[in-house]
Amino acid sequence: VCAVWDAVLALHAKGRYVSGAAVAEGGLLLRLFEAALGSALGARIELKAESGTRADQLLFGEFIGTVLLEVSPEVEKSFSALNVPHQTIGEVIAEPQLFLAEGGNALWQQSVEELAAAWSIPFREVME
To answer: Which long-range contacts (CB under 8 A, 24 or more apart) does 102-109 make?
Structure first.
């Protein structure tokens, strides 16, 4: 675990990642949504069927000690060279949409605008 955090801290010190977030409350899908909302970009994510973990666990589970980082392919290669455990889950795309696939089959897609509208409903209700 120390090697992972050392690698992340080294990347941070060198400004080598674009964005990052701990995969905690709300899980991976919420982190992806927040990143897309803040950047006006989107993501295409491939859920690894061979991981043995259900898609809902991967998307909504809290993975303590796990970090979602947006890095260039060159930076990703340095993770492998350092023997830092990591997994490529997808790519950033120009369209402000989230796409989920499993085994190459599309599972779900939604625009960030539509997701933001749905996400804000409970906040509006609380404020009324």
So the answer is: 102/46, 102/47, 102/48, 102/49, 102/55, 103/49, 104/46, 107/47, 107/55
Nearest-angstrom CA–CA distance, 114 and 70: 23
In the sheet with 42-47, reading across from the earlier edge strand, the strands are 90-93, 42-47, 97-102, 105-111
Q: Tell whether the torsion through CA atoms of 63, 67, 72 and 74 is positive or negative.
A: negative
Residue 26, SS3? coil
Q: What is the DSSP letter of 65?
A: T
Cα dihedral value 43, 49, 52, 56, nearest 10: 50
**Per DSSP, which regions of 9-61 are E strands?**
17-22, 42-47
Around Cβ 7, how many Cβ atoms within 10 Å?
Answer: 21
At 74, the pLDDT band (50, 70, 90 cuts) reads confident
* pTM for this entry: 0.84
Is-contact 35 19, C-beta < 8 A?
yes
